[in-house]
Amino acid sequence: MRGSAGFVLRRRRGVGTLELILTLPVIVVMLVALVEYTTLMILQSTVTHAATVGAREAGKIADIEEVVEAVQAVLGANCITLSDEPGSGTKVILEDVANLTTQFGDPNLDCQLPTNPLASDEVRVTVCIEMHATPVCDALRAFGFSLVGKRFQVSSLVKKESPEAIIPPPGASVRNQSDGLSSTVVNNGPPVHPYRPASTDTS
User: Fold this and answer.
1) What is the pLDDT of residue 22?
2) What number of CA atoms fall less than 13 Å from residue 189's CA on the CB side?
3) Number of folded domains in the chain?
């Protein structure tokens, strides 16, 4: 009886070891896929946010250098560096009806811009990032899920801000230089109508 019980116990251990050997690779692949998918979602969100920030900067009548600086500030948090070197796999495109189209980045990277036309008071920023320019490890390539040739491309459109709309917050000082003269204007809040008293909160 003891010999029979020992045989059964050893057999169970052997079956358990075999099951672990068969299932462990599947579990590892699933974990790697989960990590890679999560990383891709984070990068997609980052590129989308970078395009939005760049478009907002462009809406303030900023040039391509200022837009690139704003985009880089967002992408840098995920170890992505914009560069105009060939093969860098990064590009930022600024579309403006008045100033046509300007761009910064890999000259060999062809980004397909949106086909819908811009209005005269609109600007659009497109950010293109190829996978090899990101920290994503193409770990599933051996299993047929390669990221080679894939890219993130996001376009964001905003309306331009008129110079009158860019008003400093209350209490902020603005230095205005013209004809060699310098003056400082302090904004103390919204103007009061000459024939109406300022509203007062009595609560």
Assistant:
1) 82
2) 4
3) 1
